[in-house]
Write a structure and sequence with these properties.
Elements lengths: L6 H5 L20 H7 L2 H4 L2 H5 L7 E6 L5 E4 L5 E5 L23 H10 L4 E5 L5 H4 L2 H10 L4 E4 L2 H5 L5 H6 L4 H4 L12 E4 L2 E7 L11 E7 L2 E5 L9 H8 L3 E5 L9 H11 L3 E5 L12 H12 L4 E2 L7 E5 L1
Parallel strand pairs: 3-4, 4-5, 9-10, 10-11, 11-12
Antiparallel strand pairs: 1-2, 1-13, 2-3, 6-7, 7-8, 8-9
Helix pairs in contact: 5-7, 11-12, 12-13
């Protein structure tokens, strides 16, 4: 295919920004799917290609599962991603007065639910190893594996592949790291890429920590023709501008809980402005006594209305789902 840039693509520039030329030989408006199927391996690892893609016609469903955890899927549920893995033990539902439905209330219920979707790929993205993010991680992977589902996980490479990291825990859970972790067990490091099914993930920095050692992270995830910024737990930091410039994400899933651990609503609003997303969902609040309560979502919306007036904010309750289109 020849390089091409149509007027329509140029119209996609929101906020008056001019997106960099995005076609460098092999894909156009089809998004991640076209990228995955037509570019060579070397081309696919060229960040200029993934960075500067204009998107249109993309659709995904995102459901908040409480705390910092989300379920992100194509509308047909053939591609499903989980941003972190604290599901049935997730304590982020009670304060909203929402009862967890059976599909998120036990490992068995969850595996049955995911299997009912007959997915082509299930991708579990682990930002870091704190309990409110990986509390059900191993049991979740095992339950999905045992159900015969095409599940893979990714995260920071040394955490994934080192005996000082998660390797002993994978084995203890009955999971073979080289099979359940993408890239033959290597996961990925910053600047690296992971693929599963038609989903593509990049590891990006977060200003946070892990209990075990290695750096905490966030993700850029391409799914359904939409590019998602998953902040993970983080403070505000200046390179969020670079993340925006480099990856140009559409949807932000942004921690807003404040308290001892992460940025709160005003800084999360600034972060969203810097990464340049057009849609955002506040997460990581009301799930323990140290972070902000249910009011944090609206506080984030308020703060965003000042620093990013065109940002579409979806404040949700756990279990709610939104269709995001770009
Ligand atoms: Zn954390």
């Amino acid at each position: 295919m020849d390089s091409q840039t149509t007027p329509k693509e140029q119209e996609l520039d929101d906020g008056g920004r001019r997106r960099r030329d995005f076609v460098r030989g092999g894909f156009s408006l089809g998004g991640a799917i076209a990228l995955a199927s037509t570019a060579s391996a070397a081309q696919k690892d060229d960040h200029r290609m993934t960075a500067a893609r204009a998107r249109t016609g993309g659709k995904l469903l995102v459901r908040w599962l409480g705390g910092g955890v989300t379920e992100i899927a194509t509308p047909d549920y053939k591609q499903i991603a989980y941003g972190d893995a604290w599901i049935w033990n997730n304590a982020g539902w009670e304060r909203f007065g929402v009862k967890k439905p059976p599909e998120y209330a036990s490992a068995k219920g969850f595996a049955t639910y995911v299997a009912s979707k007959k997915p082509d790929a299930v991708f579990v993205l682990l930002t870091h190893d704190h309990g409110d993010h990986m509390g059900d991680y191993f049991e979740m992977l095992k339950a999905l594996s045992d159900a015969g589902l095409p599940v893979k996980t990714t995260g920071q490479s040394d955490m994934m592949r080192s005996d000082l990291g998660l390797v002993p825990k994978f084995r203890k859970a009955g999971l073979e790291p080289s099979k359940i972790v993408v890239n033959g067990g290597a996961g990925m490091n910053f600047g690296g890429v992971s693929r599963h099914g038609e989903m593509v993930a990049h590891l990006i920095p977060a200003l946070h920590s892990n209990l075990c050692c290695y750096p905490a992270a966030g993700f850029i995830l391409d799914i359904g023709g939409v590019r998602v910024y998953l902040s993970g737990d983080t403070d505000l930091f200046g390179d969020m501008r670079l993340i925006g410039e480099r990856y140009k994400p559409d949807l932000g899933v942004v921690c807003v809980g404040g308290g001892p651990f992460t940025m709160g609503p005003p800084d999360a609003a600034q972060a969203s402005a810097w990464v340049g997303v057009s849609h955002a969902i506040p997460v990581h609040y009301a799930h323990n006594g140290l972070v902000l309560g249910v009011e944090a979502g609206e506080q984030y919306r308020q703060a965003a209305s000042h620093v990013a007036p065109s940002l579409q904010v979806s404040v949700m309750k756990p279990g709610e789902q939104r269709l995001i289109t770009v």
